[in-house]
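Write out the 3D structure for:
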Amino acid sequence: MLNAEVLRIGPYRIGFWSRENFEPPHVHVTREQFGAKYGLVPGVRLAQNRGFAAHELMEIRQIIKQHEQMLLRLGMNTFVKPEATPEPVGARVSDDLLTVDPADGRSISAPLEWFPRLFHGTPEERAKFEWSFEGIHWPDLNEDIPVEGLLRGEKSGESPASIQRWLDYRARGEKEPILTLPLPPDIAAELKKMGIPTE
């Protein structure tokens, strides 16, 4: 899942799908229904494109190159699979299940407790979702779940600390900040303490 959307620049959402622990470092970039995947090692290179025009791909590559070190430090290792993953065409969230219907005719269900953001979301937040490049995005919960992960029976890979931080924001009635440039001073200071350059 893009559970972490770690950067938003203009219309582009840049982040990582969780549970991609066996692939080389890479990022996913989405805008509306379009998506791309860029490898980070060795060097920034396009690995997959779905709908972006050539000029946008060049612009996105420049953005990623500009923030490559930060993305590498924030990112995760992942493993590129040659097989295609079916697109989602339907999704339902009940009090205890997430059910997704891929385009190949299957239905996949998983316990809602596997995805803490959905589990803690309100019915209204759960009902508001959009199709993203490789799965489903819940904008009010900043949650992305890839179809490929559901097919493999994978739970959310988000850390308990990250979930608790998100719950703390919710308890205060605040939205979790999504990094934009320039970064808010408190986020920039926190990243700097972690040794992550933000410029």
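Residues 76-82 have pLDDT under 50 and may be disordered.
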